[in-house]
User: Which sequence fits this backbone?
């Protein structure tokens, strides 16, 4: 069911969308500026092949709204945005550089209202190329004034979040003898595996890329779970770190975990899935809270001039914030997703820009 571009724009609660069609590459560029209430709209640029341009626009809008909540809950003085480059196929070489240059011109046109960074299928070297046309690209290499990949710090934030969730559900943050299943072991999931193993957890991994799994098995002796068996594998913590929409009416009844806490964006297929998890007795760490480590890294280090020590404190704060959200949800009888949204709304509607959200 695809909505038209007009329907999507008419139905969106964001501030605006910038669209551009790049005829040479047959690529659509969409920048969704969801909110600048707390500061410039920040969020990565996703490059993907979509069935229709409207699907790309819809993705940009949905993800931009998620960034507004993510930044607000993390206490960042920034708003939410996201961009999509909807390409007929993923470009490489000079074609890619050319497309990214023209995209950089579009970002520059917004004069800092929207500030970008890496996302699905874009990386640090891409930000270097975009950065040749605009100052508003986070995540460039250090030689180009950036602070490198945010993947490892995203993983540190998720690790703090997992400890907080385990403490809330089981009374102690101790991970020894707890089983954590990490689905997707790329840039973030792979780093998370390492942190969990060092912390004494029993770790199981799953990834469509067998080489990644074999590498982690060899380095850390982790267990491998076939992709088709992830959902009904017995574990204490299920950590989705790959694609979104893994929690839905079909998968939730099959889950055999106590906690869902992972790095993927948009893990719930629909808002009703938060209630399904709650009814199943599963503690869910809202994705836009637990995966804020990447935004803290990019915005904290590059825009706010934080020291490494401040960043480390703020990454640990993800655990504290989650504990507050879990406690609030228990007290109010709501889902953790609703409790997290309430924290974001307090800050967006009432909190002075630059302050941390009230618990
Ligand atoms: C995300 O966390 O989903 C992002 O998109 C990270 C990000 C944060 C700030 C600027 C660019 C990318």
Assistant:
């Amino acid at each position: 069911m695809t909505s038209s571009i007009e329907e999507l724009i008419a139905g969106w609660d964001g501030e605006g969308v910038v669209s551009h069609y790049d005829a040479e590459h047959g690529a659509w560029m969409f920048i969704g500026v969801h909110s600048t209430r707390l500061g410039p709209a920040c969020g990565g640029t996703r490059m993907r092949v979509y069935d229709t341009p409207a699907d790309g626009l819809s993705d940009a809008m949905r993800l931009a709204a998620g960034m507004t909540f993510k930044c607000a809950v993390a206490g960042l003085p920034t708003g939410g945005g996201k961009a999509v480059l909807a390409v007929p196929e993923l470009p490489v070489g000079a074609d890619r550089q050319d497309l990214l240059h023209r995209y950089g011109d579009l970002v520059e046109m917004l004069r800092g209202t929207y500030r970008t960074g890496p996302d699905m299928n874009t990386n640090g070297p891409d930000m270097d190329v975009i950065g040749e046309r605009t100052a508003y690209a986070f995540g460039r290499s250090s030689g180009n004034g950036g602070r490198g990949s945010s993947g490892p710090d995203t993983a540190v934030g998720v690790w703090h979040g997992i400890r907080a969730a385990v403490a809330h559900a089981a009374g102690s943050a101790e991970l020894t003898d707890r089983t954590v299943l990490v689905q997707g072991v790329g840039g973030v999931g792979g780093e998370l595996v390492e942190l969990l193993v060092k912390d004494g957890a029993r770790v199981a991994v799953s990834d469509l890329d067998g080489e990644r799994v074999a590498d982690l098995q060899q380095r850390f002796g982790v267990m491998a779970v076939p992709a088709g068996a992830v959902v009904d594998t017995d574990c204490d913590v299920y950590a989705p770190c790959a694609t979104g929409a893994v929690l839905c009416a079909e998968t939730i009844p099959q889950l055999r975990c106590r906690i869902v806490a992972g790095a993927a964006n948009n893990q719930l297929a629909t808002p009703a899935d938060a209630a399904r998890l709650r009814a199943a007795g599963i503690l869910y760490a809202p994705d836009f809270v637990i995966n804020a480590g990447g935004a803290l890294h990019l915005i904290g280090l590059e825009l706010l001039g934080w020291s490494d020590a401040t960043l480390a404190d703020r990454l640990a704060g993800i655990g504290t914030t989650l504990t507050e959200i879990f406690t609030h949800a228990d007290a109010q009888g709501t889902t953790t997703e609703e409790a997290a949204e309430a924290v974001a709304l307090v800050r967006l509607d009432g909190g002075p820009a630059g302050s941390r959200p009230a618990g």
Q: What stands out?
A: The chain has twelve helices and twelve strands. The chain has two domains: 5-67+79-144, 151-292+322-347. Residues 42-44, 67, 70, 115-117, 119, 138, 265, 294-295, 298-299 surround 3-phenylpyruvic acid (CB under 6 Å). The domain at 151-292+322-347 is CATH 3.40.50.720 (Rossmann fold).
